[in-house]
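Last lecture ended with a question: if I hand you only a sequence, what can you say about the shape of the protein? Today we answer it with a concrete record. The protein is DUF4374 domain-containing protein. Below, first the input exactly as provided, then the predicted structure, then a couple of comments.
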Amino acid sequence: MKSTIFDFKMLTAIVLTLGLATSCSNDDSPTSPDTDGGTGTGDESRWITVAAARMGEEPGDGNGGTLIYAVSSEDAKDPTISIEPFENGFIAPSNRTARLQSSEDGSTIFNISYAGDTGGNYTKYTVEGGQTFSQTGSEISIAPYVGTAPRWIKLFDGDQTGAAVYVSTEHETDDAGNYTRTNATIGVVTLDLVNSSINNYQEHDVSLSAEEEANGYYISRIDMPVLNAAGDKLYIGARLSKVDPATTESESDYEILGSKTIVLDYPSLLNPSVITSTVGHGNTNGYRSINAFLYKGSVYQANQSDPAGSHILKIDANNEYDDSYVFSLDTALGVEDAYILGWRPAANGKAVLAYQHAGSEIGLAGAQGFFALVDLEAKTAQKIEAIPYDPDFYLFQYQGFVVDGTEIYVTQAPVGQNGNIYVVDTEKGEVTKGAELVNVEGSHFIGTF
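The predicted structure:
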């Protein structure tokens, strides 16, 4: 069934697809889809991999492991199909929730195991349908570079490169023992996804302004690297924290500074600098889902924990924030304290965005989540009413959105309850209810790849 949201005018850009994993109960070996080489026209079939996170100790914690299952895009759109990843899925190696990425055409899944004895191990799989994911290439470990719980992402360079990052911090004092600053040391490793090898690794001390550091601010977390349009700069999202300079004790109630991004030369990973937005405040490191995307020569980046609600920020080709671009989710959605949990634009500059806001009901695992359809050029957003919502619909750990042409695939299922795949046609403003997702107690779905 379909429900009309609203119409958009045609735009152009670059599209990339993302996949998560699933499992199907009445077709364990779906027919292999014809692919279009990653052009994402939406006219040819491709694999849709659904990812499911099993409960560990608490409902919705996702710490019991990740299972994936692939169906054709035709089956993903078919509401008579039932998908049961918790019963039939392939176990993605990871001690906790796996950190998954997919190739642009959905034919390959990339995984880096998170935490535990295998934490930091990179593996690559060919998607063959159902629960069949065949390992290809060598398994390598990036743990020596970025630890066993790495934060990594696939760069948008035609499935060539991944980038993983970490940060460590240390308080510094003068000869009299007085606090002077907190040093942030970042490490960045780039990974050859084709040949399963390390491309480059660099480590840097990254500074804020002298005034900010004297007041106790420092970079405490980094994530979500993305390349600029020229391919010569790497942007890394950052979170700031603060200590009391008099005691070096962590503070929680402090002035939130303008959103910041670390910029490195690419591919050398040298010459770190920090840029600051005057439009958005808060963090740009995101969480589980990609937080920044290239569109029409600029990078569009979500921020989180903004006192004025999340914004989508713009970094132009000059590698600086464009502070004339103001896109407030609070204003666009008519809510307060909007918080972007994850998002993904299609080639036309229209995106599906997962969010919560002040007043969101608190369910089994946390605040209720919602989906919105946004337009990067018009700076508009509208809640997707055709997708059903429930207090236990939890999107904080959401990882993946498949983009196929102007269509975006998402999963909807409250914690411990069944749900469905939904396909949003961003150009026509239509939503199609697809295959049923069969859940188990305390578990949830974390997206499509």
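Comments.
1. The chain has a mean pLDDT of 91.
2. Residues 417 and 439 are 5 Å apart (CA to CA).
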